[in-house]
Amino acid sequence: SGARISIVEKRHVEQDSNKNSWEYVEVFAAALSWDDILHYDDAYDWRSAVDALLMRAAEDVPDIMARVKAVCVSGTSATCLLLERGTLDVSRVARMYNFDVLGNSDSGKEEGTKKKGKSGKGELENPAERVMKLIEDYVPEKHTARATTGSLAKLLLWNEEESLVDDEGFVREMLCHQSDYISMSLMHGGMEQDEECFVTSDWHNSLKLGYDVEHLSYPEWMLKLLKEGAKISSPKDVLPSKVVSPGEPMGLISPIVAMKYGLPTDAVLVGGTTDSNAAFFAAAGARPEFGQAVTSLGSTVALKQLSKSFVEDASRGVYSHRFPRFGSGGKADEVEEAWLIGGASNVGCAVLRQEGFSNEELESLSSEIDPNTDSPLSYYPLTKKGERFPIADSEKTPVLDPKPEDRKEYLHGILQAIGDVERDGYRILGELGARPSRPTEVLTCGGGSKNDMWTAMRERRLRDICNGDQRIVVKKALNTEASYGAALLAAASFE
Ligand code: ADP
To answer: Is CATH 3.40.190.10 the right assignment for the domain spanning 75-182+192-247?
Structure first.
């Protein structure tokens, strides 16, 4: 909902030497809302927002700024832009996370007419249709990068609108994500005239681009798509030139940037992450354990769980982010491979607003519900047709009948049903191969996390699918700020 910075101090805890011997304390935070930032899709305005926040820190806590060791940036996933190759100059305005190649593009709105070429063979005239055809032809079935809101689709659309390659065949532009851009501006800021700036991205931001996080390389199909399909002679030139682990040291911050904000010249910039993964770290801490999970109870329900295994089912929108190597103390080689798996339902708290429950009414009615009793109602509380996870069914319709006279009973039925979607979601993640197959601790964020009665109800019903395992705990997350999570990642990157 804007820009925020967080500074975390890593303190050694003496008494506990075998485990968690560090504690992390937020010592400074500042935020700007989008209303304060001129254009939410203007990368220069993102930079100005970060500048304003760093200036504030430089003025308010100069002594803390002088001790900063590592900086990590998170951004909205799949928000990306094009830069003039080798520079920080924006060549095409950012396409935000929700930009849909099929829905948002002006070119996509035109009718899909066929151009009658000289050969007489029909050629697709509409850029969005050509992108869809390329995706259809080259991107493996069920792959995350097939999404029409993903960064690959956005990149292809830019290229169809105006080639990224000049007449001589040289690549003129390069792709970077929101978080990459801010990281680059901290690494090269003020030095743009003297040095070439190339993009270093990270496993999390690059997942929706198509980067293979299992093999840590750009897959063959992707290079072929760009070369043959999109006619980009040297495909790697348009892609981030390096993709590192979130939290992995990438280089020093620019000396000009260091001087401007009073940061040490040896402060290191580490690989970034996406906002929702950063929020997972904020909730679960710098050293989460396998089985730790975070449920977001906002307008929709989203689940994330740390797993020993990679899990994927694109038909349900389930994918795995590779867990940072540097997330647990800096020694990359000693860290077990781990995956942050997740899925998101269309069901969520939005239905509460739709059914006219104000936040005050939610609080007062909830306090009268007994979390230990079951509601006889069995709803499927969608706001409109179509579900993706735990079941993928575009025809699934909302079920909010029968509707009892009593508002409290109605609310009981809805909260139970949303909670059951969460419970079934974790069950499905387990069936798809999550290890452990059930979450051990579920931290909750979003508007619904304020509701203690609901937390107790969800815990009881979640335990039911785990043979009544009393060790499963559901509670409210203490912190879910993405900037705090990113700061934890930065702090975990050094000893
Ligand atoms: P978003 O996903 O839009 O960012 P939020 O995380 O801000 O959503 O959560 C807002 C939602 O939380 C609203 O749909 C609201 O109905 C719901 N909500 C607010 N208070 C409560 C409560 N006490 N119990 C259950 N749901 C609540």
So the answer is: no
